[in-house]
Amino acid sequence: MIHSMTTIAPATGKLGVLTPGMGAVASTFIAGVIAARNGHAAPIGSVSQMAHIRLGSRDEGRNPLIREFVPLAELDDLVFGGWDPISPNAMEAARTAGVLKDADLAEISAELEGVVPMDAVFDERWVTRLEPTRVKADTDMAAQAQALIEDILRFKEENGCDRLVMVWCGSTEAYQEASAVHETVAAFEEGLRNNDENISPSQIYVYAALMCDVPFANGAPNLSVDLPCMIELSETRGVPIAGKDFKTGQTLMKTLLSPGLKARMLGVRGWFSTNILGNRDGEVLDAPENFKTKEMSKLGVLDTILQPEVYPDLYGNIDHVVRINYYPPRGDEKEGWDNIDIFGWMGYPMQIKIDFLCRDSILAAPIVLDLALFMDLAARAGVSGVQDWLSFYFKAPQSRTAAGPEHDLFIQQTKLKNTLREWMGEQPVTHSEAG
Length: 435
Ligand SMILES: NC(=O)c1ccc[n+]([C@@H]2O[C@H](COP(=O)([O-])OP(=O)(O)OC[C@H]3O[C@@H](n4cnc5c(N)ncnc54)[C@H](O)[C@@H]3O)[C@@H](O)[C@H]2O)c1
Fold this sequence. Notes:
By secondary structure, this protein is α/β, with parallel strands linked by helices. It has two domains: 14-246 and 362-423, NAD(P)-binding Rossmann-like Domain (Rossmann fold); 250-357, 2-Layer Sandwich (Dihydrodipicolinate Reductase, domain 2). The protein has 16 helices and ten strands. The longest helix has 21 residues, at 360-380. The relative contact order is 0.16. The structure holds nicotinamide-adenine-dinucleotide. Nicotinamide-adenine-dinucleotide (NAD) is lined by residues 20-25, 83-87, 97, 120-122, 127, 130, 169-172, 201, 219-220, 245-246, 248-249, 279-281, 284, 360-361, 363-364.
């Protein structure tokens, strides 16, 4: 069956990428895009920039780059902006984060200094470990939302942007569960007017973005775009949304390994994961209420991939533990250890040890780029609401299906590529003997 092509508006003009939060991830993302534009560094890790996509049968030999197959915005057309309660500009944020070397930053320092975040909507109740200096004076939530809407419109106008997208790169907020104020758009708007204590800053950013028809992706695990009111708003306004929590580091390894173990029907008895990291994110996550948000997002992964309800003998009794330890000497160069207790033929136990010396922001930056470009593509393709096909990028993907999200990275990759194929009028690739 040949799919009819989806009408996708062309990517004309500039695309503004707004990041609430201009810390390690956002500054590394911006620096890398500028370096790629200048020809100093390839955008490694970015599927939208580096990956090819097979079209038709393998014999046809059609295998273009994704960015030549679908009409994405060009890196040259991106403009950067955002909000931060501390960072004065992207250069200072990059220096503080200490992810990139001075030599790499020196070449692009003028451009990075030109990316100046706007004053943030910030509330210490949700992120306790920071000392904010650049925050909006208004403490009234409805006024804060209005101020963000004005920021968005002004940014678009001043930078001559054709379109905008927003990717949350701010700190992880304290754990919360959805409450009555999050049920409907009407309840949320009422909550803004009453300064409801259940509304967090990130939710005000989502509201402002959607009211301006700006697609929103959430890179952190806190509750923001994954709320009934925001899903309703995204659908009524026709805006794409996606979340949550960038899939990097240890969880990336988990979603690489566990489908493999399951594919070979090897059992898992325990999975112990611990991390040391010393960046600002680690400091925020050192607070138990903020760690809880992260923990919930990390724990869901194994169950969904391994399906203990289908395979009780193999995966019905797993001890899954996740720890994050704040250890300043390590900076952004996180180290993550995994001890996996598996079992095989006749129940004989075996162990796998992983020691991943990763760089968190180096893994997260290409995700910000891909999400920005694909969310913009989705908006131009006229789709709205939760974008399941972008679950590839998230630890705790949002899903519009009753069955919930797919966590297996390879199924997620197939879903992403088949969505692009379908939009472009190509057949999905099934990998069957026939296809
Ligand atoms: N690096 C990764 O691999 C990775 C993976 C998954 C998720 N994340 C999440 O991405 C987010 C960013 O990570 P990071 O390493 O850049 O952290 P970071 O601490 O370096 O940067 C976060 C920035 O957000 C700012 N901020 C806090 N509250 C804000 C608000 N209300 N409005 C605007 N800005 C606000 C902080 O001042 C800080 O500069 C964190 O929530 C982190 O948990 C990161």
